[in-house]
C-alpha cells in the first residue's frame, strides 16, 4: 500500500451496493466468498446506502472467525449525513463525530485506512491532515488517505504533515479504467515519484466494460443503463470501438470482457489494488476470475492503444 508496509490483495471488495440492492444476507455471502478467495481488503463509506453498508460489514465482522483481524478495512468521510452547515465536509468538527459513528457501525476499534471521500477547498489542508494525525495517535485509525484529490493538494498535505510532525496520508482512491485514464496526466506521475498509493475504483466503468451492452440494443432491466439512459448515450464512437476491442481480447484470452478489463488495470505498475463493487455473488465470482487471467503483452498493448483517448479526458 503505497510506501507503507501494509499488504493488501490486488482486488479490493467495495461495499457500495450492500443494503441496496444487495440484501444483508447476499452481502454476507459476497464477503465470505471474497474472503475465501483471498481478498483481505474491504472498502465502504459512511454515506453508502444511508449508513447500511457500514452496518452490514460490521455485522459480518461480528460473526467472528477472524473476519475482522484478517481484513484491511477502509471507509470514508466527507459526504452529507445530517442537515445544517456542519453535516458534511472534511473539517475537524465533522470528522471527529463521523469517525465515532463509523467505528460503532463497523463494530470495530480501528479503521485501517480512513479516506477523505472528496476534496473540500473550504477546509484548510493543514486542518484535514491535523485531524487525521490526531486519530492515528488515538489509535482510531491506522492510515489515512484521499479520494479524487489533485496532485497539488496531496503534495500540500505531505508538506503540512511534516510541519505538524506526524504521519502523512498514504493513498488516493481515484476513478480509473480503460474508459477513464485521466489520472495519468498528473496524479500517476506524482504518485510514482513520491511513493503514494493508488487504489482506483470503477475498473468496469459502471458496467460498460462487462460486455452486457450492445450499441443500439436493448439494455438489461437491472442495469445502470436502464436507470440512466443518458449515461450509455454519452458513450462515443471511441468508447464503442474500445468495447469491441475488449471483446476480441477477452475471447482470445478465454475470459469475459469484464475480467479482461480488470486484468488490464492490474497490469498498471502504479495500481496497488482496484476496487470492485458487485451487487450479486455471480458478479463477484466473475470479477475474481480476473485474478486468473494473464494477458499477453500484445493484448495489453492493444487495449492501451484502443483506450489512449481516455488518457486525455478531463479529470472526473
Automatic annotation (TrEMBL):
The UniProt keyword set, sorted, is: Oxidoreductase
Q: In this protein, which residues make up the domain named NADP-dependent oxidoreductase? A: 10-306
Gene Ontology MF: a single term: oxidoreductase activity
Oxidoreductase among keywords: yes
Q: What Pfam families does this protein map onto? A: Aldo_ket_red (PF00248)
Which Gene Ontology cellular-component terms appear in the entry? cytosol
This protein is called Oxidoreductase
Amino acid at each position: 500500500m503505497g510506501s507503507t508496509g501494509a499488504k493488501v490483495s490486488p482486488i479490493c471488495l467495495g461495499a457500495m451496493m450492500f443494503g441496496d440492492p444487495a440484501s444483508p444476507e447476499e452481502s454476507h455471502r459476497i464477503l465470505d466468498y471474497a474472503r475465501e478467495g483471498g481478498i483481505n481488503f474491504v472498502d465502504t463509506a459512511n454515506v453508502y446506502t444511508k449508513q447500511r453498508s457500514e452496518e452490514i460489514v460490521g455485522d459480518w465482522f461480528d460473526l467472528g472467525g477472524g473476519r475482522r483481524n484478517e481484513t484491511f478495512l477502509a471507509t470514508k468521510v466527507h459526504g452529507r449525513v445530517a442537515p445544517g452547515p456542519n453535516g458534511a465536509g472534511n473539517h475537524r468538527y465533522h470528522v471527529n463525530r463521523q469517525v465515532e459513528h463509523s467505528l460503532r457501525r463497523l463494530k470495530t476499534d480501528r479503521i485501517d485506512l480512513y479516506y477523505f471521500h472528496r476534496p473540500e477547498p473550504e477546509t484548510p489542508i493543514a486542518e484535514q491532515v491535523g485531524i487525521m494525525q490526531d486519530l492515528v495517535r488515538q489509535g482510531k485509525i491506522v492510515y489515512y488517505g484521499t479520494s479524487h484529490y489533485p496532485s497539488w493538494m496531496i503534495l500540500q498535505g505531505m508538506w503540512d504533515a511534516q510541519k505538524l510532525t506526524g504521519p502523512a496520508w498514504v493513498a488516493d482512491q481515484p476513478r480509473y479504467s480503460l474508459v477513464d485514464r485521466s489520472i495519468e496526466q498528473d496524479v500517476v506521475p506524482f504518485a510514482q515519484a513520491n511513493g503514494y498509493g493508488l487504489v482506483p475504483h470503477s475498473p468496469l466503468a459502471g458496467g460498460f466494460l462487462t460486455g452486457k451492452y450492445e450499441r443500439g440494443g436493448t439494455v438489461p432491466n437491472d442495469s445502470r443503463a436502464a436507470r440512466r439512459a443518458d449515461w450509455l448515450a454519452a458513450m462515443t464512437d471511441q468508447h464503442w470501438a474500445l468495447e469491441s476491442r475488449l471483446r476480441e481480447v477477452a475471447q482470445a484470452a478465454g475470459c469475459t470482457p469484464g475480467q479482461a478489463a480488470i486484468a488490464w488495470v492490474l497490469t498498471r505498475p502504479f495500481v496497488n489494488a482496484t476496487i470492485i463493487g458487485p451487487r450479486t455473488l455471480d458478479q463477484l465470482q466473475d470479477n475474481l476470475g480476473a485474478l486468473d487471467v494473464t494477458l499477453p503483452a500484445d493484448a495489453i498493448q492493444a487495449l492501451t492503444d484502443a483506450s489512449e483517448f481516455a488518457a486525455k479526458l478531463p479529470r472526473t
